[in-house]
Amino acid sequence: MSQLDLAIAADVSARHVSLVETGKSRPSAAMVLRLAERLDVPLRERNRLLLAAGHAPRYRERALDGEGLAAAHGAVAAVLRAHEPYPAVVIDRRWNIVMMNRTLERFLPGVDPALLRPPVNMLRLGLHPDGLGSRIVNLAQVRAVLRARLSRQLERTRDPELAALYEEYLAPHAGDGGASIEDEITTPMVVRHGERELKLFSTVTTFGTPQDITLEEISIESYYPVDAATEALLRALAAD
């Protein structure tokens, strides 16, 4: 984005944007936030921009299960319960599991206990051969979908821990084929459970216009059955 494009989007003069960018003008906190919003900067990075400009951070980061986010925590828990008998999980910005529903817990027996030590990482749990990776029938496709998704996340955040996960689990398999980006929405995940196979697709839910770093960085991964056989098996597991 050029200085002029940003100035038009932020409804300020191109000269002022130029002065801010070259360090000849110290922007107000309001201007920092206005420019950051137009550039879609994550809340965590907006705090860093404010500090760099000599202002106090604006956005808080609190534990999801703490008193300050009790209403949000209750809403997330309700979503997880309501999604049963289908699996659902809440992950943070580094794919660490924050919460999960009882259906997903039923898939964890047999997983290497080392992978279940907190913080449990969803990406590592799903792709490691001692986790769920050995049970995913179309692992190449799933890796391709995750590679595209994680690449977009890295482009936005430059998070070193995410980069390490990418290099360990996705980069070595960049040429193994599978789903393209165009297939991402409809590509199912086929999971072997005992003698049966479940076909699932997923959706991602995030908080709208969050003003808290924690809420901006968590997402709810909800899985749905692709066919009647999968739905019947999930309901049978829930009833067991």
UniProtKB/TrEMBL annotation:
InterPro entries: Cro/C1-type_HTH, Lambda_DNA-bd_dom_sf, MLTR_LBD. Residues 1-46 form the HTH cro/C1-type domain. One of its GO terms (molecular function) is DNA binding. It comes from the Bacteria. This is Helix-turn-helix domain-containing protein.
